[in-house]
Amino acid sequence: EPEVTQTPSHQVTQMGQEVILRCVPISNHLYFYWYRQILGQKVEFLVSFYNNEISEKSEIFDDQFSVERPDGSNFTLKIRSTKLEDSAMYFCASSEWNRFSYEQYFGPGTRLTVT
Amino acid sequence: GQQVMQIPQYQHVQEGEDFTTYCNSSTTLSNIQWYKQRPGGHPVFLIQLVKSGEVKKQKRLTFQFGEAKKNSSLHITATQTTDVGTYFCAGPSTGNQFYFGTGTSLTVIP
């Protein structure tokens, strides 16, 4: 069964450093998403991406964040200058169609630890 | 902003007992989805409800969408240890974001 993959599984970085989290969505999916989950808390929407541009973004997704689809398969989340409060699990997801009215497939996540 | 609350936050049941989690949104939802997240895992889609008053069943799981499309419930009959995890409801807001509920963590005691 097709699945969303994410790398790395765990990233440790120092405060102020830039990090890039990588995702490979399911190949025939058109919508891509990033979510974050602080340990023990709910899943929070960050951004959705369609047709090579941001479709929606939350209040969390400020100027420190950016997303890119650098080629036909990868989808990346960049945090320019990490803060301690960016420590969380980051999940990438993709859906075949229709934004939030369709099943989203989540990747295994990248655990980001900012020290 | 929109809030999606779930109760209870935690539930411990003996294996074989039933379990229900309730989801309440501060605003009307066009649809509601349910996800399960096993400990240490990622959310996995269970089902989507779209119509007011809709009820769907998946084996021992029964999902309901309220008449006002602001609340939903998930009921598991005769829980098994494989049901362990956190159950999240989620839905799109009018502001074009996707909100997850606060989640209910289910522990099943064998």
Describe the structure.
The complex is a heterodimer of chains A (115) and B (110). With 115 residues, chain A is an all-beta fold. Chain A has strands at residues 5-7, 10-13, 19-24, 31-37, 43-50, 53-57, 65-68, 75-79, 88-95, 105-106, 110-114. In chain A, the strands form 2 sheets. In chain A, strands 2, 4, 5, 6, 9, 10 and 11 form a 7-stranded mixed β-sheet that branches. In chain A, strands 1-3-8-7 form a 4-stranded antiparallel β-sheet, with no helix packed on it. In chain A, 36% of the residues are buried. The mean pLDDT of chain A is 94. With 110 residues, chain B is mainly β. In chain B, 0% of the residues lie in helices and 55% in strands. Chain B has strands at 4-7, 10-14, 19-25, 32-37, 43-49, 55-58, 61-65, 71-76, 85-92, 98-100, 104-109. In chain B, strands 2, 4, 5, 9, 10 and 11 form a 6-stranded mixed β-sheet that branches. A 5-stranded antiparallel β-sheet of chain B has the order 1-3-8-7-6, with no helix packed on it. The chains are: A mainly beta (115), B mainly beta (110). The A-B interface holds A 33, 35, 42-45, 48, 55-59, 91, 93, 99-109 and B 1, 30-31, 33, 35, 37, 41-45, 48, 50, 88, 90-92, 96-103.
Summary tags:
heterodimer; A: 115 residues; mainly beta; seven-stranded mixed sheet; four-stranded antiparallel sheet; 50% strand; B: 110 residues; six-stranded mixed sheet; globular
Structural class of the secondary structure composition of chain A?
Answer: mainly beta
Strand portion of chain B? over 45%
Mean pLDDT of chain A: 94
Tally of individual helices of chain B = 0
3D shape of chain B = globular
The number of E-state strands of chain B comes to: 11
- C-alpha Rg of chain B, in Å? 13 Å
- Fraction in helix of chain A: under 10%
The averaged pLDDT of chain B comes out at: 95
Q: End-to-end distance of chain A, in Å?
A: 37 Å
